[in-house]
Amino acid sequence: SYRERQAVREANGNISKTFLAEGRVALKRHWLLLIYLVLLMAGFNFMSHGSQDLYPTMLQNQYNFSPNAVTVTQVVANLGAMTGGTVIGYCSQSLGRRFSIIFISIIGGALLYPYTFVGSKSVIAAAYFEQFCVQGAWGVIPIHLMELSPGSFRTFVVGTSYQLGNLVSSASSTIESTIGERFPLPPKGKTPRYEYGLVICIFMGCVFAYVIILTLVGPEYLGRNFDIAHDNDMAEAAGTDAYGSVVHNRRGYAANDGEGESSDDGHEKGAHTVAERV
Prior knowledge:
The chain is mainly α. It is 79% helix and 3% strand. The protein is built from twelve helices and two strands. The protein has helices spanning 2-11, 15-52, 55-61, 67-95, 97-110, 112-117, 123-148, 154-168, 172-180, 196-217, 232-238, 240-277; strands at 184-188, 191-194. α4 (67-95) runs antiparallel to α5 and α4 packs across α7.
């Protein structure tokens, strides 16, 4: 796909001019989609940071976990995250991107209560499955963003939308800790304590709802073909002559390859027939 795009830019006579034209076409046609991707990534980054950043503080401050117990819980939670990202990302290939995200987000929302209100060591199980759900939804995101993004700026859009979404969500732990100060608990000596579990539960409930709604109303291009022949933006940016010549040559090469393979198959079949007769 990259070589085909370069061939179109070279056929048009001015690579830089064609590249800039692709950017103008992408912004003109897909500006609303670009805004949607930033908002979606903001929700996903709120989901990961909102469920993780303040969680060790909650375990230690609210539930009096030892540093070792906090570490074990976090390790198990990350194992769940690794498993969820792999399993749900793979399943989305057959179940669909949006369905996978929505389904696993609903399960994650249902697990918020044990994840934030269980104060014993049993919370380890809840931490595993909660992060399985959070990062399971994340496991769909790389290919989902690739399929949604404009062809000429696919990697740029994926990276920029993620970073801008991360920028929006960067204050998630500050928001949670500030709200947590409104729910004080009896202090432990001179150390103030807060009901962070309640705050994380409410915050994450809102985030899950936001992600589900935004995913539901958004588009999906499962199995999108990344070839240049399926990119109308490039045709408009480079012009029909340059675009058509490259696509035509590509189809000609494909047809010749097909004939060559058929001819090779014929020779092989003939050779087998002669061998059998001998």
